[in-house]
Amino acid sequence: MISEKMQKALNDQINAELFSSYLYLSMAAYFEAENWAGFSSWMKKQSSEEYGHAMKFFHYLNEVNGKVTLEAIEKPKTTWKSPLEAFEEAHKHEIYITNRINDLVNLAQSEKDHATNNFLKWFVDEQVEEVSSVDQIVNKFKMVGDNKVALYMLDKELGSRS
Ligand code: OFO
């Protein structure tokens, strides 16, 4: 049986993952309004991935006979100064989520909860990938700067994310 403390922390993480999904969907809406179809499509895919992360926690908590409790999701920002600013925020957000996952691992270990510790390993690896992929995109934005043609190409490239 999962401890109350661990259960509360996993429920908080469900909320954080749903917020991530909401934040990226809000960025997708911003890009859509600014006619960046590729950036918007990338963010929509990211948003669904985040929903998937929330559901992994949801299923796990049920599997260990815990109780999922959903709370209100914070309102995300709705506008950014530029595509670069939005992706920089996504990068910052992924670092924040990585820190949260690390805190969950620390808690699972201090509670000697080996099952949750094992379950979290997937997220530890996933966060390495998430931070690195957004970091690469931020670097590309910095390289292209205000070059309209290069931005158009980047929009096409991100739009091809499978
Ligand atoms: Fe769920 O990894 Fe991003 O936030």
Task: Report what the structure shows.
It is a single chain. The chain has helices at residues 4-33, 37-63, 83-110, 114-144, 148-159. The chain has 162 residues and is mostly helical. The protein has a single domain (4-159), classed as Ferritin (Up-down Bundle), CATH 1.20.1260. Helix 3 (83-110) runs antiparallel to helix 4. The longest helix has 31 residues, at 114-144.
Which tags fit this structure?
162 residues, mainly alpha, Ferritin, elongated, binds hydroxy diiron-OXO moiety
Give the helix/strand layout.
Blueprint: H1 4-33, H2 37-63, H3 83-110, H4 114-144, H5 148-159
Count the E strands.
0
The tally of domains stands at: 1
Helix content: over 70%
CATH architecture: Up-down Bundle
**Overall pLDDT metric:** 97
- SSE pattern, N- to C-terminal: HHHHH
Strand content: under 5%
What is the number of helical segments per DSSP (H or I, 4+ residues)? 5
CATH homologous superfamily caption: Ferritin, core subunit, four-helix bundle
Question: Care to give the gist of this entry?
Answer:
By secondary structure, the protein is mainly α. It has helices at residues 4-33, 37-63, 83-110, 114-144, 148-159.
